[in-house]
Design a protein that fits this description.
alpha+beta; Four Helix Bundle (Hemerythrin (Met), subunit A); Beta-Lactamase; 2 domains; three-stranded antiparallel β-sheet; 14 helices; 8 strands; disordered N terminus
Length: 346
């Protein structure tokens, strides 16, 4: 079987899978009002027209990708080098990663719409991996050209599947709050194809931090999630490091539990940090914390030997979302494992 035939067959197969996905969703969502899905294209178009909305960004990225594919095909037909175009095209992995993290799981877990995560996600990975393999291949012969044309055809098919299937399904299911959450989370991804993210005014008006912090008898709620006090304690004690937090008044507020290279007596809690250091070290500690307080420095790493082991002590300024100093973190990590690993590599 030729490379071209292989990919033509794969495109046909995935089209059949997408149709099967749609048939399955029809069965799953018979209880959903028909008018909701009849109007899915209109709902999708309405959201796509909002500057900064996630669908607006995805569609803008698709337009750049489509133009890049057309340009690459033209250069291939003229026998010209397309190395730069392929490298640029591989930015689609950012687009696919965002979809994979923000859209597919939400459809699957919250709405029981499993098709996209079952079929489209797999195809995303195949397109991305094939582009990566092509870029690494030093031989750009006719077979290489056939493979590139085939994977570009699949990428075009994915644009169509996104804009005609995936995005409309998301548009009629996701709530405004979920879209705002996707908008906030999308900030963690690199810019794709040079498309700078526009500001979504409605989401920004509500703030971009999402869940606010709170404490109840049941849980500690933070912007990044929520857990019980017992879970938080276990988590902090599982981190393979010695953690100390000193507040903005220079008072010891927290030590995680467990054996330590640098002892942390419980009675040191609520005492000034200076009382935990010998006189010869105190001036250095004061200087570090003052630099953190004034913004002169954000971190001070100190490598040392302790008990015959290589240790990294990191002093880090702790700041709130507005950049205000709220304290200092001392993070002690035994680095012997890293030294052993790299010595083995030699």
């Amino acid at each position: 079987m030729s490379i071209r035939t292989h990919y033509d067959d794969k495109i046909a197969r995935t089209e059949e899978e997408v149709q099967a996905m749609l048939d399955k969703q029809k069965e799953l969502h018979k209880s959903v009002p028909k008018e909701k899905y009849v109007a899915k294209e209109a709902a999708c178009a309405e959201l796509t027209d909002i500057p900064g909305h996630p669908l607006n960004t995805y569609v803008r990225e698709n337009k750049v990708l489509a133009a890049l594919i057309e340009k690459t095909r033209g250069k291939l037909a003229l026998g010209q080098d397309v190395t730069d175009e392929l490298r640029e095209m591989r930015q689609v992995s950012i687009h696919y990663a965002s979809k994979g993290d923000l859209l597919y799981p939400l459809l699957d877990a919250r709405y029981d719409i499993t098709g996209p995560s079952g079929f489209l996600w797999t195809e995303d990975d195949e397109i991305r991996d094939e582009m990566g393999a092509l870029e690494k291949d030093p031989v750009h012969d006719d077979q290489w050209n056939d493979r590139l044309n085939a994977v570009m055809a699949r990428a075009e098919q994915m644009i169509s599947k996104e804009e005609n299937i995936l995005f409309p399904i998301c548009a009629v299911n996701f709530t405004p709050e979920e879209w705002k959450g996707i908008y906030r989370d999308s900030m963690d991804y690199d810019i794709c194809f040079g498309i700078e993210r526009a500001v979504w005014e409605e989401a920004e008006a509500e703030g971009v931090t999402g869940r606010s912090a709170s404490v109840s008898d049941a849980e500690i709620v933070l912007p990044g999630g929520h857990m019980t006090a017992d879970q938080l304690r276990a988590l902090l004690n599982t981190i393979p490091a010695e953690i100390t937090f000193v507040d903005d008044q220079n008072i010891n507020r927290f030590f995680n539990e467990g054996p330590k290279l640098f002892k942390r007596p419980e009675m040191a809690i609520d005492r000034e940090v200076w009382t935990c250091h010998p006189p010869k070290v105190e001036p250095m500690v004061r200087a570090i914390i003052e630099d953190f307080r004034t913004g002169k420095r954000d971190e001070v790493p100190v490598w040392m030997e302790k008990g015959g082991r290589t240790v990294l002590v990191r002093y880090m300024a702790v700041r709130d979302t507005d950049g205000n100093y709220v304290g200092t973190l001392e993070y002690v990590q035994d680095m012997e494992f890293a030294k052993e690993h790299f010595l083995k590599e030699k």
